[in-house]
Amino acid sequence: EVGAPILHVLEDGTEMIKGSILAIDPPKRLEMTFEPDWMPDAPASRVAYEIEDKGNACKLTILHYEIPPGLEGVRSGWSEIAASLKSYLETGEPLLIPNSGYRSAQS
């Protein structure tokens, strides 16, 4: 639902990202604000997830807009998250991302 809150919490209880849903077009698009808790004074940016049907597969595009100064590093984070998601969908095992606070779903 547009306006609904989003909260990403690590396994140890650390809140990483807050936001709210800006737009939904199931099953094609979800857009939300992105407010990193590790940088509380940073202005919110926007993230859109777009899913495109490709027959027997799909294409996920992650678009991150209005990234504030000091948060440019999130670009590499999205690549790691997408790679882990791809691994999980293909094998049932996510990739472990060093120093991220994430653990395997099987752990």
Biggest sheet strand line-up: 1-2-3-4-5
The stretches of 5 or more residues where confidence is low (pLDDT under 50) are: 103-107
Question: Largest sheet, described in full?
Answer: 5 strands, antiparallel
The helix count comes to 1
The helix-strand sequence is EEEEEH
Sheet-strand content, in percent, reads 35-45%
Q: Per the principal axes of the C-alpha atoms, what is the gross shape?
A: globular
Helix content: 10-25%
The end-to-end distance, rounded to whole angstroms, is 32 Å
Strand tally: 5
- Mean pLDDT across all amino acids: 87
Radius of gyration using CA atoms only: 15 Å
Structural class: alpha+beta
Describe this structure as you would to a colleague.
This protein is an alpha+beta fold and 107 residues long. It is built from 1 helix and 5 strands; from the N terminus they run βββββα. The chain has one helix at 74-91, and strands at 5-9, 15-25, 29-36, 45-53, 58-65. A 5-stranded antiparallel sheet has the order 1-2-3-4-5, covered by helices on one side. Strand 4 and strand 5 (58-65) form a beta hairpin. The chain is globular, with a radius of gyration of 15 Å. Mean pLDDT is 87; it is low at 103-107.
Compact summary:
With 107 residues, the protein is of the alpha+beta class. 17% of the residues lie in helices and 38% in strands.
Descriptive labels:
1 helix; alpha+beta; 107 residues; 5 strands; single chain
